[in-house]
Write a structure and sequence with these properties.
mainly alpha, Rossmann fold, 3-stranded parallel β-sheet, two-stranded parallel ribbon, 8 helices, elongated, UDP-glucosyltransferase activity
Length: 187
Amino acid sequence: MKIAIELEESDRHFICVIKSSNQEDYTDWLDGFEERMNKERRGFIIRGWAPQILILNHPVVEGVLTHCGWNSTLEAISAGVPLITWPMNGDQFFNEKLIVEVLQLGVSVGAKEGGWYFEERQLIEAETIKSMIERVVGEGFEGEAMRNRAKELKEKARAAMQEGGSSYADIRNLIGELMDRRNELLI
């Protein structure tokens, strides 16, 4: 709800993906929020699965709020999109350190402890979320530096996948090694 409040108060366009095993958990507040955003043609709410790679690679996407799962992290980096990090549990806190401190591709909302259940998670204030959004997509030097770094890493990731790139070579080597082992077993 706090994310929705800040999205509604901002003047930014957005896509909000709501994933829940029980969609009825969100019905009380989400329906009014969704109706207002549709009327203003500013926000789009997706309930359930979303085509994340397609969304991240759209040229108007300026940033993403992420739980720092490894797939989401790699998809955002490959798309050249800076991140607002909100880890929930497990390795997501380590992934956040990589994003924020090592790669300098994003900012943290400040979650320090997680949990598997909603009741165990740290509450993040709406004003903090708004501030992090502005740091990433705003006009300041910090946001511009993150966006430039994200574009640079996007190009490096793409180059690695092209013929002659490191990922391309590694996958060719893996396939070759697997073929050699299969052939050894057949002899």
